[in-house]
Write a structure and sequence with these properties.
Layout (H helix, E strand, L loop, with lengths): L9 H10 L5 H14 L5 E4 L4 H11 L9 E4 H10 L7 H9 L6 H23 L5 H11 L6 H10 L1 H18 L14 E2 H9 L10 H14 L2 H4 L22 H4 L4 H13 L2 E2 L6 E5 L10 E4 H6 L8 E5 L2 H9 L19 E4 L6 H14 L4 E5 L4 H13 L4 E3 L4 H8 L10 H9 L8 H8 L9 H10 L8
Parallel strand pairs: 3-4, 7-8, 7-9, 9-10
Antiparallel strand pairs: 1-2, 5-6, 5-8
Helix pairs in contact: 6-9, 7-9, 8-9, 9-10, 9-11, 11-14, 14-17, 16-22, 19-21
């Protein structure tokens, strides 16, 4: 026996029981879709490859003679008419949709207007939740963001599609952060009241010390806003590696910042991000980023120093060096130190002798501390001091080398990091690990400015070579203090 819902008219209960049958599901979806596209009960809803149950449902309702496999073209006007004359009356397509789906049947234009109203509502809510007058910067950013032009818009849009509540929360956090950083209209880009650590700012803005990390939406949006604000006019038009963001509605948004592309994860770009933060009084973690370095000193054992970024930047000056020898792996760094000859620490230490070399370990991609140490040491040492880099012959090793080559043009020199070294080491026994298909594909796209044929050679042999395979040669080079022209 049919169960009627409490308070529901008997005709609605009958309609629900009739049209909720599985045979009507695909038919009604086609009807809803056509009606929504036209904005009226006109045209035909098309259902291809009817099943036996669907054929029987249409035949029973319309008095047709459909067969399984047929294509049904259902006139929406006729469907509306049959509904109004049926035992379900008063009934039509829109009322049936509301009855079965629990929501009005909206046209495309109605859905667009509703989406725009919800989008505007997000910003009304943010402004209301602020609880205080917004700074000029925050107010202008919200207005541009609502219009689809603000920095951070891509991150917001992507989050808004899946989680509107989290999207609103992220914008609220950025607004509070901007109010704290730039609290009055007369502050320029350097006009902050007091420096603040990024996690402290995050707690003040969100109660969560990690809310403004770059892996959080609010963190990426704040970085994009500050980068846009600190950029020059040319950069604001999309220079300096910025990609124009996708539009609010299928690519219509005007140029803005792609925060995901703006801050790729390597030490060079991380340092740029830190420098930009500091322009706005934001101090970040300067203890976790470290660099291992060693410079031979008269009478001292071959023991490395480990400095944080804070120490690198606080140092009054860095020593002058004849060359900066940079290795990727800690084991290689230590092995070079293990090979220190007994008299080596005295070499070059006498008055009037050449400056000693420096040995630096990046422990993978160069950290902000390593980049800053190299920058400061090169500045102290003069134009003749070169950066000699050696890394693993694999995708990451080449990419790290290219990052340094791009960061230090005119100073970068490959140190046993060329085709000759690779081919010699790759044919040793036992051989290195094989590249997988994805790594080979990446190699084919890599640019190696100091040795263009190198990726092709590596693809040809198909094997990786780690620095440890030729570490003895690296140690010999460093302790020989030879001129850089002698280094392959």
């Amino acid at each position: 026996m049919m169960q009627e819902r409490q308070g529901e008219p008997r005709s609605d209960s009958r309609a629900r029981a009739y049209f909720e049958k599985p045979a009507w599901r695909r038919i009604l979806r086609a009807v809803w879709r056509k009606c929504a596209s036209l904005g009226r009960s006109g045209g035909h809803a098309v259902v291809e490859q009817l099943t036996e149950a669907e054929s029987e449902a249409l035949n029973s309702f319309f008095g047709w003679n459909c067969r399984p496999g047929d294509t049904a073209k259902i006139p929406l006007a006729l469907f509306d008419e049959e509904l109004s004359l049926s035992g379900f009356a008063p009934m039509n397509i829109r009322r049936l949709h509301l009855l079965l789906e629990g929501a009005p049947l909206l046209t495309r234009e109605e859905r667009r207007l509703l989406a725009e109203d919800r989008w505007r509502g997000l910003f009304r809510s943010v402004r209301e939740s602020a609880g205080q007058p917004l700074s000029r910067e925050a107010d202008e950013w919200l207005a541009r963001l609502e219009a689809g032009q603000g920095a951070g818009g891509r991150t917001l849009r992507e989050l808004y599609k899946t989680d509107p509540a989290s999207a609103r929360q992220a914008v609220e956090i950025v607004v509070r952060a901007l109010n704290l950083l730039l609290p009055s209209a007369d502050h320029d880009v350097r006009g902050f009241r007091q420096s603040v650590r990024l996690p402290v700012l995050a707690v003040q803005a969100a109660g969560d010390a990690h809310a403004l990390d770059m892996n959080r939406p609010a963190g990426r949006m704040l970085a994009a806003v500050l980068r846009e604000r600190s950029a020059g006019p040319e950069e604001e038009q999309g220079a300096a590696g910025e990609a124009a963001e996708s539009g609010r509605e299928e690519g219509n948004e005007t140029a803005a910042y792609d925060e995901a592309a703006a801050f790729p994860e390597d030490g060079s770009e991380t340092l740029k991000l830190r420098e930009m933060y500091r322009r706005f009084g934001i101090l970040d973690d300067d203890l976790s980023s470290i660099v291992h370095w060693y410079i031979p000193r008269d009478g001292e054992p071959a023991l490395p120093h480990v400095w944080t970024l804070r120490q690198v930047e606080a140092a009054e000056r860095l020593p002058r060096c004849s060359g900066l020898y940079v290795v990727e792996n800690p084991a290689v760094f230590s092995t070079v130190l293990d090979r220190a000859p007994s008299a080596a620490v005295s070499a070059g230490a006498d008055a009037g002798a050449v400056d000693p070399p420096a040995l630096i370990c990046t422990s993978g991609p160069a950290s902000a501390a390593a980049i800053r140490w190299i920058e400061r040491c090169l500045a102290s040492s003069g134009d003749d001091c070169k950066l000699l880099y050696s890394g693993d012959f694999d995708v990451k090793g080449l990419a790290m080398g290219q990052t340094l080559a791009d960061r230090f043009p005119g100073r970068f020199v490959p140190w046993r990091f060329d085709s000759e070294t690779y081919l010699s080491a790759a044919q040793a026994r036992p051989p290195g690990p094989l590249f997988d298909d994805s790594e080979l594909a990446k190699l084919a796209k890599l640019r190696v400015s100091w040795d263009e044929p190198l990726p092709a050679e590596m693809i040809g042999l198909g094997r990786k070579v780690h620095q440890e395979a030729f570490v003895e040669a690296l140690a010999s080079d460093f302790w020989a203090y030879g001129g850089i022209g002698e280094i392959r």
